[in-house]
Structures are given as structure tokens and as C-alpha cells.
From TrEMBL:
It comes from the Bacteria. SUPFAM superfamilies: Carbon-nitrogen hydrolase. Belongs to the carbon-nitrogen hydrolase superfamily. Nitrilase family. Residues 6-286 form the CN hydrolase domain. This is CN hydrolase domain-containing protein. Pfam families: CN_hydrolase.
């Protein structure tokens, strides 16, 4: 393998809650900041725009209706002007971008997904991923995703794939990316996961849990994992909590995620950024991954493809299938609000 290097950046920054315009402006600023430091790929936190719906962990479901409506209204469509602006920024800066956001369906104002797109340095949309399963209370906000985004994209500096938060612990989803030759893994996480150990009442250490998860995938897949998490500052805390002092105390007691880049040996070149806004940047050697696969190549010789088989449905889920028997056709394409639906008789 020819010598191949990459400079990677993980974002650690607060979201501009419920304000997609401000969120996109901040995102473009971070893209420019990374490009100025010759970064090849920048990775953003989970649902960076318009923020992560952490209130679902605290409020009764019946008390969260107004917040859901605000959140849905501030969510983005993948073909909308906000994602177009991120693509333009990537093209102008010549940098690849893994951008995570709350996606709204074009056919329903209340159908949302926890999504991410991988954009090439030419501004092309390479991967559009929807989180396979919303975790726990996330089901109050987001719909289940599909396999269409379980893709790895070849960049000039390596093969890039990614997953969102808890699905980074899904063995089959991770293997689907391994089996496509993934070399750089994007992992998006929220700022906090409000949870206490029922035995000790200790707050969940999300930073350590995230590092363990990332190290496991990096070791098994022989990849570099770029972990990006958001954080709370005074403004975002005020927007989410308002005058609710109990909710503020709960969020303040939970440790944040911390941004990092994790190598196959579990080390974190570039360090871990926690508690302050910024970028974690590290130079990595992609060509060094080949030697590691001589020991354990989970998608290659160290597997038994004659025993184990994984089948993945890469089709994008659609809400409508139309029976049209008059035209004596088995498949017709109907364009509805910029989405294509397969019509079957």
C-alpha cells in the first residue's frame, strides 16, 4: 500500500438549540477553521442542528409536546438550503464533512430521523445515514432509520464510514462497514446522557463509555475513530432548561462526552477535549492499518464466510407503494415532493 496520511478533526461545541440558521453559521465557521489547519475530514456531534432533545430524559412525555413541535420545525430536510450550505462550505474549503442533524421528512412535518451525511471535499453527498434505532427516550422524537446509509465512501485519504451514538456498539452495523474496507470511522454523540447508576447514584461517565466504545471498534476493525460530541454552555443551558432549576442541576451533574480521535491501539492522538469548545486534530497513518490486519482481519481471512453470512438491505424506506395494474407494469416511479416512491402492483 502506498503511503497514505490523513489529518482528522473532531468537533466539541454547543448547539444553537432550535435555531438552524445560527447552527449552520456555526458549522460553516468550524469547517473553515478546520480547513485553515489543513484538515482532511471534520466530524460533527449528534444532531448538532438543531440540538439534541435531551428534555425527553427529564420531562413527562405529555409535557414535551411544545418542545417536539419546536424541534420538528427546526429540523432539516436533506435536500434543503441548510445542507446545501454545508455542501457549499465543504466544496469551498476542499474538506470532507460528516455532518449530523435532525432530519425532517419532506412528506410529513412530524416524521423525524436522527441523521448524518458524509460530504466529499468536492461538495458531493456521498452517504446519507439515518440512525437505525432511536435509543431509549429518543423514540419520543425520532423514527427508525434504514440500511441505505450503511455505506463506506472512498476519499483520496482513505475509506470513510460512520454511525451515530449507541449504534457504534451494534456489532452487525459495524461489521457492515468493516466489510466495505472502512479505514476512518465517524462517531457522533450528544453532550450528555442523563443517567445515574442505581447502585451508587453516580452520574454516568459518558466520556469513558464513549472512549471504550470507540477503542473497541478501532481495535476490531483496524480503523481510526473520530469521536465528536456536543457540550452545554450558558446559552444552550438557558434555552433548554429555562427556569427549571431541577433540570439544570440534572444536566450539570452529568459529565459530557468529550471529543477525541482513537487509534487501533486505543490511544488518543490529539488528546481528549472536554469542558471547552474547540477541535481535536490528529495526523494519522492510514497505510499503517494494513500490517495490523495480518493479526486479525475480521472482514477478511480471520472470518469464516462459509459459516457466517450477513445480508444487509440497503434500500431506502418509503412511505407509499402504489398499485397500478392498468399499465401492466411491475414498477412505476412517482415523484412526490422531491422523493421517489416505488409503486408495485
Amino acid at each position: 500500500m502506498t503511503d497514505m496520511k490523513a489529518r482528522l478533526a473532531a468537533v466539541h461545541a454547543p448547539s444553537e438549540f432550535f435555531d438552524p440558521d445560527a447552527g449552520i453559521r456555526k458549522s460553516i465557521g468550524l469547517i473553515k477553521q478546520a480547513a485553515a489547519q489543513q484538515v482532511d475530514l471534520i466530524v460533527f456531534p449528534e444532531s448538532f442542528v438543531p440540538g439534541f432533545p435531551v428534555w425527553n430524559s427529564y420531562l413527562r412525555p405529555t409535557d414535551g409536546h411544545d418542545l417536539f413541535a419546536r424541534f420538528a420545525d427546526a429540523s432539516l430536510t436533506v435536500d434543503g438550503p441548510e445542507i446545501a450550505a454545508i455542501r457549499d462550505a465543504a466544496r469551498s474549503a476542499g474538506i470532507a464533512v460528516w455532518f449530523a442533524f435532525s432530519e425532517r421528512a419532506t412528506y410529513s412535518s412530524g416524521c423525524l430521523w436522527n441523521s448524518a451525511v458524509l460530504i466529499g471535499p468536492d461538495g458531493e453527498l456521498c452517504v446519507h445515514h439515518r440512525k437505525l434505532v432511536p435509543t431509549f427516550y429518543e423514540k419520543l422524537t425520532w423514527n427508525r432509520g434504514d440500511g441505505a446509509g450503511l455505506r463506506v465512501c472512498q476519499m483520496s485519504f482513505g475509506k470513510v464510514g460512520g454511525l451515530i451514538c449507541g449504534e457504534n456498539g451494534n456489532p452487525l452495523a459495524r461489521y457492515a462497514l468493516m466489510a466495505q474496507g472502512e479505514q476512518i470511522h465517524c462517531a457522533s454523540y450528544p453532550s450528555v446522557w442523563p443517567f445515574r447508576d442505581p447502585r451508587t447514584s453516580a452520574a454516568y461517565d459518558m466520556s469513558e463509555a464513549t472512549r471504550i466504545r470507540a477503542a473497541a471498534h478501532s481495535f476490531e476493525a483496524k480503523v481510526y475513530t473520530v469521536v465528536s460530541t456536543s457540550m452545554f454552555d450558558d446559552q444552550s443551558m438557558q434555552t433548554v432548561c429555562g427556569g427549571d432549576t431541577d433540570m439544570r442541576a440534572m444536566l450539570s451533574a452529568c459529565r459530557g462526552g468529550g471529543a477525541m480521535i482513537v487509534a487501533p491501539d486505543g490511544s488518543t492522538p490529539g488528546g481528549v477535549l472536554y469542558g471547552e469548545e474547540g477541535l481535536v486534530i490528529a495526523d494519522v497513518d492510514i497505510s499503517a492499518l494494513t500490517e495490523l490486519k495480518q493479526h486479525h482481519d475480521m472482514a477478511g481471512y480471520y472470518n469464516r464466510h462459509d459459516i457466517f453470512r450477513l445480508e444487509v438491505d440497503f434500500k431506502r424506506q418509503k412511505p407509499l407503494y402504489w398499485a397500478d395494474k392498468t399499465q401492466n407494469r411491475t414498477e412505476v416511479l412517482l415523484t412526490m415532493q422531491d422523493e421517489s416512491f416505488t409503486l408495485l402492483d
